[in-house]
């Protein structure tokens, strides 16, 4: 969709960051015009950027000069500010319930599943098989049942929802880093076998243009490998 607005939006971002990617998915899906400022995360933040966001992190959204930080809040704000197919308003019939279901899904995905995937980056070789088992078990318990009516997106929606806005960046990374050999070769086959709802949903999410828009698979795989090498390098 394309939203016509006189609002002035500036997104401070970095295309390698999965958290910032959430804001991009929301903006792409809504079709809201915005200005982009790329923040170099390899060098110390400038005083100018620290004045915008003292945490120095991306994403940051400037909405007509008001600053909004934290990717989940930025994405929720965009979905609320520009009503759309992403999420019903809480006053709509069933709206509050759907919003609660979305929030529960996102919480379960990030805090119960995605957290295990981050651990692969610093895990020793001997810990990796057990980590696959723990991650897949958490996915099966916490995420899989909540996608039983996905068709193809959350809750039977034929368009992206706020669920895919908040999790799509992690889905494309899961598939890319799985195929790219960053995660153990057993991870994706175990997910496909044990979490079929999730697997079918993830295949659709990962090819949606609003999700793939800023995603550079080769670069993300290469950068993640570099990061892992640094984390595993013996400390001087
Ligand atoms: N909780 C934050 C996390 C954002 C975050 O960790 N961004 C990273 C890049 S992926 C960052 O800005 N790192 C730079 C730093 O922490 O100094 C959010 O969801 O917005």
UniProtKB/TrEMBL annotation:
Coiled coil: none annotated. Residues 95-231 form the GST C-terminal domain. InterPro entries: Glutathione-S-Trfase_C-like (IPR010987), Glutathione-S-Trfase_C_sf (IPR036282), Glutathione_S-Trfase (IPR040079), Glutathione_S-Trfase_N (IPR004045), GST_Omega/HSP26 (IPR050983), Thioredoxin-like_sf (IPR036249). It comes from the Eukaryota. Residues 7-86 form the GST N-terminal domain. GO terms for cellular component: cytoplasm. PANTHER family: PTHR43968, S-TRANSFERASE, PUTATIVE (AFU_ORTHOLOGUE AFUA_2G00590)-RELATED. This is Uncharacterized protein. It comes from Apiotrichum porosum.
């Amino acid at each position: 969709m394309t939203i016509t607005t006189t609002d002035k939006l500036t997104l401070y971002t970095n295309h390698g960051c999965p958290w910032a990617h959430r804001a991009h998915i929301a903006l792409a899906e809504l079709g809201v015009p915005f200005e982009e400022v790329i923040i170099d995360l390899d060098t110390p933040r400038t005083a100018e950027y620290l004045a915008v966001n003292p945490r120095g992190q991306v994403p940051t959204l400037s909405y007509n000069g008001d600053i909004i930080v934290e990717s989940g809040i930025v994405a929720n704000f965009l979905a609320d500010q520009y009503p759309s197919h992403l999420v019903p308003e809480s006053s709509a019939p069933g709206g509050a319930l759907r919003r609660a279901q979305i929030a529960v899904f996102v919480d379960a995905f990030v805090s119960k599943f995605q957290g295990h995937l981050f651990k692969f980056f610093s895990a020793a070789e001997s810990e990796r098989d057990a980590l696959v088992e723990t991650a897949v078990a958490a996915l099966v318990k916490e995420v899989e049942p909540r996608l039983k009516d996905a068709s193809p997106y959350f809750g039977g929606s034929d368009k992206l929802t706020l669920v895919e806005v908040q999790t799509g960046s992690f889905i494309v990374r899961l598939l890319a880093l799985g195929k790219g050999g960053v995660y153990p070769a057993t991870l994706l086959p175990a997910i496909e076998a044990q979490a079929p709802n999730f697997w079918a949903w993830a295949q659709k999410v990962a090819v949606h243009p609003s999700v793939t828009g800023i995603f550079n698979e080769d670069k993300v795989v290469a950068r993640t490998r570099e990061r892992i090498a640094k984390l595993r390098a013996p400390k001087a």
